[in-house]
Amino acid sequence: MSDLTPVEKRIVTVLYHAQKPLSTSDIATRSELSWATTKKYLDSLHRKKLLRKGKQGKAIYWWIRID
Predict the structure, then answer these.
(1) Biggest alpha carbon distance in the chain?
(2) Which has the closest alpha carbon to 62: 30, 37, 29, 27?
(3) Among 8, 14, 18, 52, who pairs with 4 as Cys (CB 3.0-4.6 Å)?
(4) Which residues contact 65 (CB under 8 A, 6 or more apart)?
(5) CA dihedral 50, 25, 18, 38 (to 10 degrees)
(6) Which parts of the chain are beta strand (E)?
(7) Cα–Cα distance between 36 and 25 in angstroms, integer?
(8) 5-40 exposure pattern, b = at least 16 Cβ within 10 A, e = fewer
(9) pTM for this one?
(10) CB atoms < 10 A from the CB of 59, how many?
């Protein structure tokens, strides 16, 4: 996790402590970031293959990739 930015570390920490998939909005609220900033960094973490995502209705849910 040393190559992550402070914001990415904050988001990963939120997901780790939740121990369940969270929506972009939930992550933004828990990490005290704007929705747009959260989405930007979630996409970055997904590209780095650290997160998985799935869609339920209109919401996108994110969780830590453990494989």
Answers:
(1) 34
(2) 27
(3) 8
(4) 49, 50, 51, 52
(5) 40
(6) 22-23, 51-56, 59-64
(7) 10
(8) eebbebbbebbeeeeebbebebbbebbebeeeebbe
(9) 0.91
(10) 13
Burial group, residue 64, by CB count within 10 angstroms (0-12, 13-18, 19+) = middle
Q: How many CA atoms lie within 13 A of 26 on its CB side?
A: 14
pLDDT in tens, 3-60: 899 999 999 999 999 999 999 999 999 999 999 999 999 999 999 999 999 999 999 9
